[in-house]
Specification:
alpha/beta; five-stranded parallel β-sheet; 10 helices; 5 strands; about 15% strand; globular
Length: about 260
Amino acid sequence: MKILIIHGSPRRGNTWDVLNLVKEKIDKKIDVEYDILELSKVKLGTCIGCFNCILKGEEKCPHFETMQNITQRIEDCDAIIITSPVYSLQISGILKNFIDHMSYNFHRPKYFTKKAFIITTTAGVSEKKIANYLEEVLNFWGITTVYKLPLKYRDGILEKDKKKVDDEVNKFINSIKNSTYKVPTFKNIAYYNAWRSMSIKMYEKGCPDYDYWIESELYKYSYHPDIKIGKLKDLFGNILYKTMIKAMAKNKQQVSNNE
């Protein structure tokens, strides 16, 4: 079992303390190899919003060599622990910069069989808000088996949250041990099928989105075939997909008639 830790704090402070506590609890239950990625030690330039990763392919990113190393480490792991302190009511700047470099995954989700554990800390407020934000980001990447540990924490005071920490870590451990996945929500299914339909109908061969969905054969499914979603959500996804395909075809025809 290999867990990639993406540490989003620029220092080893309160968030690092909680991370080490979580690691200790995991180590007592299962054998784990950790790959620790401290973003503060990675020379990753600022995302410039060039859209190359989305429109031309992730290899066209100005910082591709650095990002390739990180994405390969994500590919090689079984699960991810991602951490961030609250800075000005949001995640840390270095973590946001990393997420911005991963924007193409919103169009081309691929980490469906990964699992994730989120740690957020604050001395004040917004720890739940940023944990929810990180969960939504991971959902877009394809990761729906996510556990969250948002904490108010400073100077080693964790006694009142002991049960909360134990409960969330145990859920994460059990999901890894049992090879189980959370069932995606209707919202997850909707986003998946929105990109599924747009990538096939709005683009053509040579476009990274089109090529990804065709070559991976994910366009054939209402959700990733390794993740069980049940008959109702399968029906929902396929109806949404067909509806969007028809709507885009109709719109394309109307545009063509007006030219």
